[in-house]
């Protein structure tokens, strides 16, 4: 019924066996980590010395261990996915329910929507902008916090606090800040002489985009900083020591040691960020409602409005969701592939 | 990816289970036939202590609460009221309709009612309405909206009318007659410009929901109707919003916008705060929801007049919510008891009119409470005026109210953008209407 709203790519689970981990992304990253228990290429544990005829009670035990997770995946992921698939091929209106098969009309109508092209274009733009800014900023912050010794905990807390706020609450907060009627930001900019006349934070297409990016960066920078900080702390001091003995300067050791050794963390951040941004909804739903003039409609918003605001056509909305899901699977597969190559 | 026989078997099992679960889900979704209100229950239905559930949306919370409290106090039946935020209401009703969990009674924005009756969300109450002694005087616009294939499903719950409000203090300062609002579109423009000419910090001539389809529908359609033109054809499948009167309306707002007489916030206003500036006394004159008269009068000295057309006339958008018995109700006779009480003098006058809400019956326009406040009388009278309408279109939401609807595109182009796209924008509305 609902569009895919999980921040993690549903497609990423296809390669991982049930029970390999709650989180498909970390699970597949862990699979390549040298510290993880040895695993076969397909993720099935390699059991040396134990043939296929291994005791059947052991096998049953294995299934039992996997059962709770398998059940969760089944009930919370596969069944809804099946329902969305069924909707996407049916003439299924919000109020009247299913009224028979409607393929490929659902898909052609979804792609033919007057907002489909602009929505895809905007979503991609937003994703690129957000990802580049967020990762760069988070990396900078992580290095800063790593270096700072005195104010370490203060800085870390200050940056991390926004992450404790839900995205919807954060959006409402920014809605109030940006409000032309009561927001303090506009008058502040005017008083500082940075703007003449009232400032419209959400009134033009680019202002709306950057205002939303500012919100998302504020909200998530701390989170990604933390992820990268963990990665940074995982790099052994010995390596830096060796580098400095070899005469490497700050920049060289950053470029040749920090960045390569941080790749798994950066990869995780990029995947989370790209996926999250492609599925952006809350912030735009609250801040801009897709406006002005439909210039900030994201794909998931289009799914929502097709289902609930106007067309009330669950079939078409589901078809759109399936297309989004397919795109996400492709994007994630490409990302994994690119990162795996770097890894070798 | 290679698969071993074992994983393949596991997958088949998973697929099988998923299909089974799906079959179960759909089985509960489509079950049941609509309930009928039994004819031997009498015109007043049954009052036997049943607990009834009633859903409505947040903008009508105050009025709904008044009605429910008064009903619960005087009846055995007890109504439990659930309020849902405006933007989530359709979603919530849609989800409940799919799973068969609609409450006994639920209200719907009257412009969505044609779509919802067509989808079969309400129980047929044609015969029960005919039995009501007040049947002849119930607001016709709401009844028409709730009629599908000659059967009636909906009664008016709360009327929400649009009228012209002006700020008498600002009118006095601007040298305008504080007791005389605009009677033509040109006068509206003049008076807004006169208030603007005061050149006071933060004070503007007028305001509107510049990015809010519902606001535009509510405030601009009456200007077209009052000019003797229509906004759609009878079936609600073709847009006529490129007509002469409509063009005059767009021109008026474009002129005001270019003269700087519109609040800067109007341009981005999506509807949440479109009346806020007037409420704070910073707007001279604007079309306004009549239900807010009481609240607004606390901060502003308000004058009220019907929305005029190009050369005069008077009209209003007869909006608000209709209410019906849901298809899922298990106590339709008790639910009817609430509806028949809702149409009575007691509910319409003692509850609604006493709180300055327009009665949904034309014979009560001149009630005792209206006599105390001539402004309320103006509002009650325009509800039954010849040019007042409740627009009827099955795809109303998609064409007009939804964020980014073709209607929003049309009027934003007309006021802020390239006004030359009128014909093509109007075509886009027709397309949405006829889908």
Q: How is this structure best summarized?
A:
The complex is a heterodimer of chains A (344) and B (435). Chain A is built from 13 helices and 2 strands. Chain A is an all-alpha fold.
Treating each run of at least 4 consecutive H or I residues as one helix, how many helices of chain B? Answer: 19
CATH class of the domain at 116-296 in chain A: Mainly Alpha
How many strand segments of chain B? 12
Quantity of strands of chain A, as a count: 2
Instruction: Give the full name of the CATH homologous superfamily of the largest domain in chain B.
Output: Periplasmic binding protein-like II
**Which architecture of the largest domain in chain B per CATH?**
3-Layer(aba) Sandwich
What is the mean predicted local confidence, pLDDT of chain A?
A: 81
Globally, the shape of chain A reads flat
Helicity range of chain A? 55-70%
- Label the structural class of chain A: mainly alpha
How big is the Rg of chain B?
A: 24 Å
Q: In terms of structural class, how would the helical and strand content of chain B be classed?
A: alpha+beta
- Number of self-contained structural domains of chain B: 2
Instruction: Walk across the major sheet of chain A and give the strand order.
Output: 1-2
Biggest pleated sheet of chain B? 5 strands, mixed
What order do the helices and strands of chain A follow? Answer: HHEEHHHHHHHHHHH
- Biggest interface between protein chains, with counts per chain? A-B, 41 and 50 residues
| Strand line-up in the sheet with most strands of chain B | 2-1-3-12-6
Distance between the termini of chain A: 41 Å
Mean pLDDT of chain B: 88
């Amino acid at each position: 019924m609902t569009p895919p709203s999980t921040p993690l790519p549903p497609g990423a689970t296809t390669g991982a066996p049930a029970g390999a981990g709650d989180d498909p992304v970390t699970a597949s990253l862990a699979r390549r980590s040298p510290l993880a228990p040895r695993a076969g290429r397909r993720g099935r544990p390699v059991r040396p010395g134990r043939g296929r005829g291994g005791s059947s009670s052991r096998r049953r035990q294995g299934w039992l261990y996997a059962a709770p997770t398998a059940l969760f995946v089944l009930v919370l992921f596969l069944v809804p996915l099946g329902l969305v698939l069924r909707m996407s091929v049916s003439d299924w209106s919000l109020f009247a329910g299913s009224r028979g098969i409607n393929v490929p009309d659902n898909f052609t109508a979804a792609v033919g929507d007057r907002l489909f092209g602009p929505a895809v274009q905007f979503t991609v733009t937003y994703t690129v902008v957000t990802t580049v800014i967020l990762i760069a900023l988070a990396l900078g912050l992580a290095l800063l916090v790593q270096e700072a010794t005195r104010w370490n905990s203060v800085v870390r807390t200050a940056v991390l606090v926004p992450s404790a706020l839900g995205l919807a609450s954060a959006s409402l907060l920014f809605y109030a800040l940006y409000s032309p009627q009561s927001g303090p930001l506009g008058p502040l900019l005017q008083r500082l002489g940075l703007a003449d006349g009232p400032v419209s934070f959400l009134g033009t297409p680019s202002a709306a985009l950057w205002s939303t990016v500012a919100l998302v960066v504020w909200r998530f920078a701390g989170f990604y900083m933390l992820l990268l900080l963990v990665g940074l702390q995982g790099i052994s001091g010995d390596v830096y020591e060796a580098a400095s003995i070899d005469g490497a300067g700050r920049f060289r050791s950053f470029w040749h040691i920090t960045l390569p050794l941080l790749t798994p963390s950066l990869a995780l951040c990029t995947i989370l960020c790209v996926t999250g941004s492609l599925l952006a909804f809350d912030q735009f739903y609250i801040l801009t409602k897709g406006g002005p003039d439909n210039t900030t409609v994201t794909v998931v918003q289009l799914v929502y409005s097709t289902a609930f605001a106007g067309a009330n056509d669950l079939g078409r909305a589901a078809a759109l969701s399936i297309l989004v899901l397919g795109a996400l699977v492709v994007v994630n597969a490409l990302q994994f592939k690119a990162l795996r190559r770097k890894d070798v | 990816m290679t698969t071993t026989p074992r994983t393949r078997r596991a997958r088949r099992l998973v697929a099988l289970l998923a299909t089974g679960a799906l079959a179960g889900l759909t089985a509960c979704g489509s079950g049941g036939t609509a309930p009928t209100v039994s004819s031997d229950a009498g015109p007043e239905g049954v009052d036997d202590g049943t607990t009834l559930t009633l859903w409505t949306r947040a903008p009508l919370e105050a009025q709904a609460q008044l009605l429910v409290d008064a009903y619960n106090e005087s009846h055995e039946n007890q109504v439990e009221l659930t309020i849902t935020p405006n933007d989530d209401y359709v979603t919530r009703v849609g989800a409940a309709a799919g799973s068969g969990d609609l409450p006994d009674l639920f209200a719907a924005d009257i412009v969505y009612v044609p779509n919802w009756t067509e989808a079969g969300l309400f129980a047929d109450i044609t015969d029960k309405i005919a039995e009501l002694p007040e049947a002849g005087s119930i607001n016709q616009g709401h009844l028409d909206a709730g009629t599908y294939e000659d059967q009636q499903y909906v009664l008016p719950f709360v009327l929400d009318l649009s009228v012209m409000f002006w700020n008498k203090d600002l009118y006095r300062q601007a040298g305008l007659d504080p007791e005389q609002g605009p009677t033509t579109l040109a006068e509206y423009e003049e008076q807004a410009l006169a208030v603007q000419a005061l050149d006071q910090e933060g004070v503007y001539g007028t305001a509107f929901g510049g990015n809010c389809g519902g606001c535009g529908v509510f405030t601009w359609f009456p200007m077209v109707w009052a000019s003797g033109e229509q906004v759609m054809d009878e079936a609600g499948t073709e847009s006529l919003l490129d007509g002469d009167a409509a063009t005059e309306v767009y021109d008026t707002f474009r002129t005001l916008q270019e003269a700087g007489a519109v609040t800067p916030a109007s341009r981005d206003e999506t509807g949440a705060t479109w009346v806020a500036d007037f409420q704070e006394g910073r707007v001279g004159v604007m079309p306004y929801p009549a239900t807010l008269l009481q609240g607004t009068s606390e901060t502003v000295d308000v004058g009220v007049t019907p929305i005029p057309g190009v050369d005069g006339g008077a009209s209003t958008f007869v909006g608000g919510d209709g209410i019906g018995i849901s298809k899922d109700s298990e106590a339709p006779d008790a639910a009817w008891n609430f509806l028949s009480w809702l149409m009575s003098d007691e509910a319409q006058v003692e509850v609604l009119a006493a709180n300055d809400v327009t009665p949904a019956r034309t014979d009560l326009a001149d009630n005792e409470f209206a006599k105390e406040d001539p402004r309320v009388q103006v509002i009650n009278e325009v509800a039954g005026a010849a040019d007042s309408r409740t627009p009827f279109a099955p795809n109303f939401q998609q064409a007009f109210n939804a964020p980014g609807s073709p209607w929003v595109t049309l009027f934003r182009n007309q006021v802020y953008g390239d006004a030359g796209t009128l014909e093509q924008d109007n075509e886009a509305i027709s397309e949405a209407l006829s889908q």
